[in-house]
Design goal:
single chain; alpha+beta; Arc Repressor Mutant, subunit A; Alpha-Beta Plaits; 2 domains; 4-stranded antiparallel beta sheet; 6 helices; Lrp/AsnC family transcriptional regulator; DNA-binding; AsnC-type_HTH_dom
Length: 161
C-alpha cells in the first residue's frame, strides 16, 4: 500500500533505476537509509513492488524488429492458444484486450522473415493483424501519483486541462 508522497518519491526513483542505493534515495527525499529500506520492504510485502527487472536493448541483443500482433481466437480454442503462445520465445508480452481481437502480443524479432514465420505459426488459430514498431515514443513509462490524482478528478467530474 502506498501511504504518502515519500512512498511515491521512492517509487519514482526506483522506476528510474532500481539499483539506486537506499542512502542515495534517502538523501534525495530527506530520509535515512534505514527508513527508506523499511518503506521499500513494506511496498514489496504489500505487493506494490512486484520485483526488479533488467531492461534489455533489443537492437543490441540482435532483435532489431518489434511488432505487435493481435488475433481473434475462437472461444473454444482460447485456452489452447494461450498455452500455445507461451511456447513462442518471440512473444515478450501478451495481453487480453477488448475489441474485435481478443489478444495482443508484443514480439521481439530478428527481421521480416522471422516476423513472417511467427505470423504463419499464429495463423493456425486465427487471422493475425500485425503492426510493426517504427520507434518507441515512450518506453517503460513512469507510474506516478499524478495518474491516481487524475483518475480521482475524472471520477469526481473535474475535467483537467
Amino acid at each position: 500500500m502506498i501511504k504518502d508522497d515519500l512512498d511515491w518519491k521512492i517509487l519514482e526513483v526506483l522506476q528510474q533505476n532500481s539499483r539506486t542505493p537506499y542512502a542515495v534515495i534517502g538523501r534525495e527525499i530527506g530520509l535515512s537509509a534505514s527508513a527508506v529500506a523499511e518503506r521499500i520492504q513494506r511496498l514489496e510485502d504489500s505487493g506494490v513492488i512486484e520485483g526488479y527487472a533488467t531492461t534489455i536493448n533489443l537492437k543490441k541483443a540482435g532483435l532489431p524488429l518489434s511488432a505487435y500482433i493481435s488475433i481473434q481466437v475462437q472461444k473454444t480454442n482460447h485456452a489452447t492458444f494461450v498455452s500455445y503462445i507461451k511456447e513462442f520465445p518471440e512473444v515478450i508480452q501478451c495481453s487480453r484486450v477488448t475489441g474485435k481481437d481478443c489478444l495482443i502480443m508484443k514480439c521481439a524479432l530478428k527481421d521480416s522473415s522471422h516476423l513472417a514465420n511467427v505470423i504463419d505459426r499464429l495463423a493456425v488459430y486465427g487471422d493475425p493483424t500485425t503492426l510493426v514498431v517504427l520507434s518507441e515514443v515512450i518506453r517503460n513509462g513512469m507510474i506516478c501519483k499524478e495518474i491516481i490524482e487524475l483518475a480521482a478528478a475524472l471520477e469526481a467530474g473535474d475535467m483537467p486541462d
